[in-house]
Amino acid sequence: MPGSTVFTAGHDLHRMRRANLSSFFSTASVRRLEPLVRKTVDKLTDALQTHKHSEEPVVVSSAYSGFAIDVITDYAFARSYNLLDDQTFRRSMHSAFSKARSGMHWIRHFPWLFNVLKKLPRPLAVRINQGIVALRELQLELRRQVAEIIAQHETGIKPKVESRATIFHTLLESSMPNEEKALNRLGIDGFSLVRAGTETMGSSKL
Asked: Each residue of 130-183: pLDDT tens digit?
């Protein structure tokens, strides 16, 4: 996504942005995240056990992407989406990402199509590409969450998470330039983190 760390073209700016995020995924940081990961794995295995006893089929890609979103939203925003609470995995975003990819090759060549899609009435836009509409709504929701975190930071409110740091709360307390802490910048990276985690886990064949 343009404006995200991944798509930053300038070498020095890209290196700074990448360094700011990569520290959250170092070996030490991931170890500190282990209790959250274990708790979410337990929730996933409980859901799979339910399917085992009922002999209902499981869309594994949806189960894995739900796991990824629950972990990354908790880690990034201190607010898990708890998609695995639905043991049918129907709340997973994997289907939306898959449907969106079918229209991305058009938007890649004709970027103005995305702006047109955003201005259409939702029922019509959904008929054209439901996945892109769902991702746009997710992007807006994540942006709202980042805006809340920024507002909390400015008033001195700390996240209700003990023993570990969340990504965006920590970024706001860092020595990054103020323009790197702006809502537009952090909102784009928030969406990129959720999308990256969801697509990689959802495509896993394990």
From this structure: 777 777 888 888 899 999 999 988 888 776 665 566 888 888 988 888 888 899
The answer to whether 65 and 97 are in contact (CB under 8 A) is: yes
For the chain, what percentages of helix, strand and coil (3-state, to nearest 5) are there? Answer: 70, 0, 30
202 CB-near residues (< 8 Å, 6+ apart): 61, 62, 64, 65, 68, 92, 94, 97, 98
Q: Would you list the DSSP string of 14-67?
A: HHHHHHHHHGGGSHHHHHHTHHHHHHHHHHHHHHHHHHHHHT----HHHHHHHH
Segment 96-134, tens digit of pLDDT: 666 676 666 777 777 777 777 777 788 887 787 777 777
Q: Which amino acid is at 137?
A: E
Closest CA relative to residue 167, chosen from 81, 93, 72, 80: 72
Q: Name residue, tokens 């809502």.
A: 183
Element of type H or E holding 128: helix 122-128
Distant-in-sequence, close-in-space partners of 151: CB < 8 Å, separation ≥ 6: none
State the DSSP H helix or E strand holding residue 129, giving kind and residue range, or none if neither.
none
Question: What's the residue count for the chain?
Answer: 206
3-state SS, residue 155:
coil
